[in-house]
Amino acid sequence: MSENSRPRVFWMIDCEYSITMLLRRCDIAVRPAEQRAAVLPSIFLFLLLVFITITVELNALKSIDEVTGFWIQRSITPTRTAVMLVWTNLGATWLVSLFAAVLGIVLAFRHWNYWLRRLVWSVPACMLSVEAIKYLFQRPRPVVPHPLLQLATYSFPSGHTASATVLYGFLAILICSFTQRMICQALIWSAAVALIASVALSRIYLGVHYLTDVAAGVILGLAWLSLSARVRESSERHHPM
């Protein structure tokens, strides 16, 4: 690892430790019996994010990024472009923020404080962390022969993909808590995965992200969903069965 990449990776480790300490000080960690189940996925996802970050810093997956982008861009057609422009807006900051705000108001109005806290510790926190990581690494956008979008912001990680992952993942968790039927839960998660994959694919198709950008976005979104699971589950949790 280069000297320039070491401080950035260790900065991410410090941030993860600080978030864990903050969760404990806020007294929103889950009960000890549930803590191991909540912590292990978070640690795994965080280590996976660090691994991808290191590979990006070392350009270890540069050839895969370039081949993937070139292969997808060979499939450009006017119809597909129109579809991709719709799909990419499913992870747009304004749409995710608006949806999360409305959902937060509904949860607060229903006094579902458990789910409200989980929402706060997932969607807004994830979106803020994306901007922090973008500023920290400052990875340039892909250079493609025929870019369909031109953005002046940084590439790593994909904010649209991370936002879609954390929002639609949260919705899937919330809706699945209302039903015990496996077929219903499978359909709900299939819809969530389809939405997330559509956003991720659209970002590469439009030439604004590498494969590693969207992969990091998915992992980051899942990591925040996992961290939010450490919110204490109490009598404040409601299920309108």
Summarize the structure.
With 241 residues, the protein is an all-alpha fold.
SSE run: HHHHHHHHHH
User: What is the overall pLDDT average?
Assistant: 80
Largest sheet report: none
What integer value in Å does the Rg equal?
19 Å
How much strand content do the residues show?
under 5%
**Protein structure class:** mainly alpha
Number of helical runs?
10
**Cα-to-Cα separation, first versus last residue:** 53 Å
Number of strands: 0
- Indicate the overall shape: globular
* Helix percentage range: over 70%
- How many domain units? 1
**Low-confidence parts:** 1-6, 26-34
Describe this structure in words.
- The protein has ten helices and no strands.
- By secondary structure, it is mostly helical.
- The radius of gyration is 19 Å and the shape is globular.
- It starts with a helix and ends in a 13-residue tail after the last helix.
- The model is unreliable at 1-6 and 26-34 (pLDDT under 50).
Features:
globular; 241 residues; mainly alpha; 71% helix
Topology of this protein?
Blueprint: H1 5-25, H2 32-57, H3 62-73, H4 78-88, H5 93-109, H6 113-120, H7 123-137, H8 159-176, H9 182-205, H10 211-228
Helix pairs in contact: 1-2, 2-10, 4-9, 5-6, 7-8, 7-10, 8-9, 8-10, 9-10
